[in-house]
Amino acid sequence: MYVKMGSVARKNRAFHVRIDNHDVWNLDSTLANIIHPALIRLRERVPHFGYPTPYDETEAYPDFSAQGSFEEILDREAESNYYETLWMDKLQKMIDAFAMIIDKDEEYDKIMHHRDDADAREEWWRKIEEGLTLFSKHYHGLWD
């Protein structure tokens, strides 16, 4: 696989992508090896220029209902910090899931090949599924 992308600042941004047959063998792992470091870079980029706005009522800022309408929010900095922390936690779960896909080490071999480790297997896959679900749910929010 070969990927080269020009600068975002260029009017005519150039994209050069070549994908070979061996790249699509075990494509989930190939993509995980690309996505994982990109998510780490996104998380580590400072300053952060924003975070996705949560539209889910369960993620609403806890003091939002007490503060009244959007225009009347009393502490915008506290609200911003709350949403940024929420976003960083989700981003970390995505990073962890892709790391688990990439790093199938001795622990993975132990829990996947011994019948006594059913609970550990379920927990392993639950963490991966949680991270992948967050990735798909927030795919359009992966910007900075």
Question: How are the elements arranged and paired?
Answer:
Elements lengths: L1 E4 L9 E4 L2 H4 L2 H18 L19 H4 L8 H27 L3 H7 L5 H20 L7
Antiparallel strand pairs: 1-2
Can you characterise this structure?
The protein is 56% helix and 6% strand. The chain is built from 6 helices and 2 strands. With 144 residues, it is mainly alpha-helical. The mean pLDDT is 82. The protein has one domain (26-141). Strands 1-2 form a two-stranded antiparallel ribbon. α2 packs antiparallel against α4 (76-102) and α4 packs across α6 (118-137). It has helices at 21-24, 27-44, 64-67, 76-102, 106-112, 118-137, and strands at 2-5, 15-18.
What is the distance, rounded to the nearest whole angstrom, between the alpha carbons of the first and last residues?
A: 26 Å
Give the count of helical stretches. Answer: 6
What is the succession of H and E elements? EEHHHHHH
Low-confidence stretches: none
Structural class: mainly alpha
Helicity range of the residues?
A: 55-70%
- Give the neighbour order of strands across the main sheet: 1-2
The proportion of strand residues reads 5-15%
* Overall strand count: 2
* Main β sheet profile: 2 strands, antiparallel
- The oligomeric state of the chains shown is single chain
What is the overall silhouette?
Answer: flat
Number of domains: 1
Rg, please?
19 Å
Mean pLDDT: 82
